[in-house]
Amino acid sequence: MPLTLPFTPLLRTNCIRTITTATTSAPRFTRFLATQTTPRMSSACCSIPPVTTGQYDPKGTYAPYAGFEKAYITGPKDAKVAITGVFDIFGYFPQTLQAADIIASKGYRVILPDFFRGKPYPLNEFPPSNAEQKKKLADFFGGIADISKRLPELIQVAQQARSEGAVKVGSVGWCWGGKVNLLAGSNADVFDAVAAIHPAMLDPADAEKLQVPAGFFPSKDEPEAAVKKVIEILSSNKFKDVNAYHHYTHPKAIHGFSAARGDLSDPEVKELYEDVYKRLTAFFKKALGDA
Predict the structure, then answer these.
(1) What is the rounded CA–CA span in Å between residue 147 and residue 141?
(2) How far apart are CA 73 and CA 201, in angstroms?
(3) Cα gap 273→53, rounded to integer Å
(4) Which of 249, 200, 252 is nearest to 43 (CA)?
(5) Cβ neighbourhood burial of 11 (10 Å; 0-12, 13-18, 19+)
(6) Per-residue pLDDT tens for 219-247?
């Protein structure tokens, strides 16, 4: 059943300017993160609040997984294809759990680890309205949401899925998680396909490093030049016949429309939400085969 959620007005505020990753020991394909300053977060990413109420009865369960005390797991246990998921900074939201269940309904085993260890960014402080809250948001991205630390954990989840019988492993990420997934796609030894939905910190350089097919579904709020460049790359690289992409430019296709910021009580948003998961699951079927 679809979610029924109230409308939440959009708020605007200044965004943190840059996020610099900390030095860390990590697999070779992630080490470049330690010396990289990521692109600016878009103003929409840092200013659109999540929809804070809504009802959805998740189909999956929570259980420890791959070193995490908690992960949302949905779909058949004996699936030959596993999909790992990386949520946005608000963690386990009804819209994101419903998305995981939609993917799982196609026969995939879907695993969403709790990357933030029960401490997603607090709703009552978003969007940040003062200097203290802006610093807290920056500290969040430099701490528990430090991609250079979370990416190796995503790899561990994929490896465990393979050890449990998955023949192929894909991954999907929303917003912050979209950035994680585009980076994860640089290693074909771990993932067979990746997808990013309205990714934060969008950088065409990540797309240039892809070593697996990719699904790319940006919102109207991602930087237009970067979106065009990524699509140009996906339409011409060696996976061009498998890659999937669609730029959502509808006025209500805001950054986060298919995750925590999606107001599914709005019929137009609901239609967009349903469309992106039709495209995503079609991409996974093409890239990964039947579950």
Answers:
(1) 8
(2) 27
(3) 17
(4) 200
(5) exposed
(6) 999 999 999 999 999 999 999 999 999 99
Query: Is 257 exposed, middle or buried (CB count within 10 Å of its CB: 0-12, 13-18, 19+)?
Result: buried
b vs e for 148-167, b when ≥16 Cβ sit within 10 Å of the residue's Cβ? bbbbeebbbbbebbeeeebe
What is the distance between the alpha carbons of residues 2 and 98, in angstroms, rounded to a whole number? 8
Q: Rounded to whole angstroms, what are the CA distances from 228 to 115, 224, 254, 281, 285?
A: 30, 6, 17, 23, 25
DSSP 80: S
Q: Residue 85 belongs to what H/E stretch?
A: strand 81-86
This prediction has a pTM of 0.84
pLDDT tens column, 113-132 = 999 999 999 988 888 999 99
Token code pair at residue 243: 């890659």
Euclidean distance between CA atoms 206 and 216, whole angstroms: 12
